[in-house]
Predict the structure.
Amino acid sequence: MFNFPLANLLSEPVGVAHYVTVGAILFICGALCMATKRNALGVLMGIELVLNGANLNFVAFGSQYLRNDGHSLGLDGQLMALFVIVLAAAEAAVALAIALNFYNNHDSIDVDRADQLRG
Amino acid sequence: MDSIYWPTFFFYLFSGLACAFAVAVLLSSNIVRMAFYLVLSLGATAGLMFLAGAEFVGAMQLLIYVGGTLVLLIFGVMLTSQERFVVMKTWAGDWVKAFLAGGALLFILAYAAFSIPEWRGIERTEADAIVAQPTVTPIAMGLLGARTDDPSRAGYLLPFEIVSVHLLVVLIGAAYLARAKRSRSSIEKI
Amino acid sequence: MAPFLSQYIWTWLAYTIAGLVHVVLILNLVAVGALVFIWLERKISGRIQDRLGPTRVGGKFGWLQTLADGIKLLTKEDLAPAGADHFLFRIAPYVSFCASIAAFIAIPFAGGEYPWIAQHLNVGVFFVLAVLGLEVFGVILAGYSSASKWSLFGAMREAAQVVSYEVPLGMCVVVPVLIAGSLDLVVIGDSQAGSLLNWFIFHDPFTFIIFWVYCTCATASVNRAPFDLAEAESELVAGFHTEYSGLRWSFFFMAEYGSMFSVSILASILFLGGWHGPIPVTNFLDLSPENGPVLGYMGQLIGAVNVIGKGVFGVCIMMWIRWTLPRLRIDQVMATCLKYCTPIAAAMFLGATLWQLQMPGKAFFGLINVSPSVFAIGDGGSATRLVKPAESKQDVNEQDQIARKKPASLELAQKGL
């Protein structure tokens, strides 16, 4: 499955699979960021990376250069990516406001401190 | 060996940058450095979008994501950092579990992506034959509800309006959230 | 240039050489521009304050003063504070400088069929805005990493200011985009072809007002006085670059002058006709590519001189403002943006939209019919390109007829895309 020869690596056009793999790497980095960071803003950055990976997939599925078997998303992919970007900006604004509130209440940005609801 | 296909070369360049800086975001523990690596990663992703022929999305990525979001993030960093260079360590056990899970997921996703033959890329002669089409006008018309590429399908006027209203609500809400608490704490201090 | 070269040498070498030529041209423009602007700033500030400015170094007007300063800066010790985050501290000036130069990638210096531009993007306006917005990033990193209160205050002010001013700036920029019907800077510039009367600043009353809003916002977004809160020396020592010395400090300055120049050029392309001078000299002399490459080259050269001249003029205006007006307070800066610039820009945007709906195809406050410029339609795609050469040789009488055919060509352009 991964046996394409290295010599052809640079001489053949890339496909959707390559973009999806890059998207997967970004997604996983983001997900791990969300899981391992104790800083609320670090978690936020993880979310940005995840959204960015998803965005890259949308663009790749909509691109005419990566596959031409007629199943490309076309314009829809790019429009979806645009909506994701806008919503990500909105999400960042709200998350920043939440982080500020969190800091005001806890004097820290460490998400592990938010354990008042623990039983 | 055939001559190098330059879009592929630039794909590997930008994807290498994007992935390397995404990993750097993951591994770094200083929040401002994380933000810096994140900007570079997002910028490289914008380059990938330009390569995929989505220049409007790429420019928007640069303008909104990199320009707007990250300045906001850094602003937040400054408002919330108590020590000068905030470092919060992650437990070593968490790292091991995270890498195991992430590595397995990455393997499955990459395996799945490359196991679909249509996704493996098109032939070079076909790629050369594709005529580049500007995407700005079709996107704008699509957002206004009139698709130019396929008039039989519906446009995106309603989602566009919903997103606009959503943005407005979010802006007001964020301003309210950030403001109300601060004024209360300042009253408490008095 | 690259396809031409690749007939003779390897393709990769051709593209590398073509890229290097662009890079060298742009770097030189910014570096030499900074050299000239710093000297100009000293002369202008001197004259405004009723003194002479530099007079000794290099001849009568002291025009080598900046070079001497540069050599002095080179020999200075490159210090980093002990408490600094060294990696970010080192890299911050380069971030600013790269962002400021990268904006020039998408800025055309002459238009027409073969524009003088490093990379012809059909989202040029947004690209330039986005990359200019990145310049603030280096400033923030510098302020944060240098472990100094003054730097941090300066950087925080800068962050707040630039984020706020991007909103009205974006709105101002959208108005010429709306009139030209394209995000492509080449198309925007070429749709103002002709004389002074066709410039977008005189297109209607709304664009005339929004030009001044743009000037205000552009001055603020490049941190020039009276909006230079990030480096207010009376309160913050030197703001974000307090801890910097030597060459790194000079990179910040080059970045500042580079982005001043690029917002001025952007203003000239968006509102002031770009490479089309106030009097259409190139049209009188028939300096167009159809009459042979040499004449076309001459025409382009005059266009480039126009763009750069207007850019330098804009920078001089900024200097004039700097040495005339006192600095605002930070709350006044924010109030200017949020209470005045944004509402005015929004209202003017709405007005320009309605004007464009009511009187399409007019120029100079709707008083004259605009000469048809086919470039004004579509987004610089292949369809508009194909239409243009066929019509460009028509004489003036026939062009009136084309003006009435505009809706048809709009349809054509959209179908072609």
Remarks:
- Chain C has three domains: 1-72, 76-359, 371-417.
- Confidence is low (pLDDT under 50) at residues 373-417 of chain C.
- Chains C and A do not touch (no CB pair under 8 Å).
